[in-house]
Write a structure and sequence with these properties.
Pfam families: Rce1-like (PF02517). By secondary structure, the protein is mostly helical. The protein is built from nine helices and no strands. The chain has one domain.
Amino acid sequence: MSTSQPLVPTEPPPTRTHRWGLGAFFFAQAVFVLVSVVLAAALSSPDALALVAMLVLPTVLAGAVAVLITLVRGNGPRLDFGLEWRWSDVTTGLAIGGIGLVTTTIATTLWVRWMGPQEGQSTVSSLLDGVQLPPALAVVIFLHVWLIAPLCEELIYRGLLWGAMERLRWSQLHVFVLSTAVFAIGHLEPERTALLLVVAIPIGVARMVTGRLTASVVAHQVNNFLPALGLLLISLGLMPS
């Protein structure tokens, strides 16, 4: 006659804490700046293709570095950043991103009225000012500004930076405030820093309320849709710059 052993509930194994900190964020930022400077120096008289490379490559490479850091020094972007597909995060990102799109549009309109059209231009807009791109390259820029750049920037600012500050046991409010400020300053557009703060607030809110990166990526992409569409139409010569 056998005796059954009582079932003892087992706890899931604890998730390993990532081993990267603020240095990882600064390294990814250094990659962005270094690639930008090297491309600008190498392509002193850029054609259309070179312009697209100057706009796309620094951001994509910096985002790739952020992912690589999580793979080498952490648990990968899914666990370290919460970068996974959840409908709840997508819907939250869409809702907050929609609100952010409205507030950003209003803020941009007021900013241009107060400061003038030139002060309202982003670096991307300035580089493409007066440049008519071939349709294929115009679509590449559209997709980059709308989908790819937001993903890469979120990996850096609300991925690496956010996670590094959480590792230091900072409160969520402090993490939100500082990452929002660094995001605005890190674009290296001093004339537009105040406007970029308005842009960054709803994106950071999406990250804070869900605790995961997916929502902030979606919110960022929603916020970038209209500027990306405007760049597409201008680049194709369908709308005046």
